Amino acid sequence: CNAMLQFGRQPLAMVSAMHHGVRAVLLFGTKFVDLRDTDDFFATVLREESPDTPEVVRGVFWMQDNVTAPEQIITLSDAEWRTPSSGLKPTRYNWTRDSTCWGLSFYCMPNCMTDHPEVGNVRIEISPSGKWIWMQGDQLVYIVQPHDVIRDGAGQPLDMPAGTLMRLTYNGGDPKKKLNYQYLLTRVAFKRSDDGAIVKTAAYEVLQQQLRYEPVYRCSCCGVGLCLNEDEFVTATKSLSPLQMYMPKP
After folding, report:
1. Which residues of the chain have pLDDT under 70?
2. Which of 49, 81, 82, 193 lies 20 to 30 Å (CA to CA) from residue 124?
3. Helical H runs in the chain?
4. What would the pLDDT profile of 72-82 be if each residue is shown by its tens digit?
């Protein structure tokens, strides 16, 4: 079995999965998926969808514009939903990481943790107002409401329909304090309730367009942009790693 390992999101070398410790990970059920061909992958990650999953988090989500972490796809419907608003999401299952050197480090951490409610899980809590999702620590998700107007840094309104999920990190997890980081949890597919068919959303094609994006800039030795100038770095963040590794939920 071969895997394309990369530094950052740039190709490094084609190496055998028998080397560099990758084989040890593969023995625990690691799968690889090319996000340009997702039919079987979507069926797999939605196979264990809990019937108790709140509608707002059903489906397959792309961590859109999450430029600091080597991860792309996540499901929340496979969490253990203890109540209609509270669940535990195992970080090892149905959570893809880039098949890169950087991604491998993110992948190994949750897979080395024990199965325990307080370790290796993200606790998910939906607020009574239905506007917020707490995902542990300082990680929040805001659910865009019907009459919200979301503006960019220049004050221009953005196309953010009701139900859009905005992953936000504030100081101390307090929305009244400084916003430190943000990206979107964008639904790219879901399982139809009447017949179980997998339906891809319009955002799926946006993901495909970004996967096809090939930036043109000088090679960076580290592959994560540390020696790129500002314009090159911004361009580099638009490039995604199509090859992902993940572990399906048993």
Report:
1. 1-28, 113-118, 215-228, 233-234, 236
2. 193
3. 22-26, 39-45, 101-111, 202-211, 230-236
4. 999 999 999 99
Strand segments, DSSP code E, in 78-178 are 80-83, 86-90, 95-98, 121-126, 132-134, 139-143, 165-170
Q: Which residues, 6 or more positions from 196, have their beta carbon under 8 angstroms from its beta carbon?
A: none
Task: In whole angstroms, give the CA distance from residue 3 to residue 54.
Answer: 36
| Distance from C-alpha of 75 to C-alpha of 59, rounded to nearest angstrom | 6
74 bridge partner residues = 61, 95
CA-based R_g, the chain, Å? 18
Tens-place pLDDT, residues 178-232: 999 999 999 999 999 899 999 999 999 999 999 988 766 555 454 555 566 777 7
210: left (phi over 0), alpha (psi -120 to 50) or beta: alpha
What is the C-alpha separation between 56 and 217, in angstroms, rounded?
A: 39
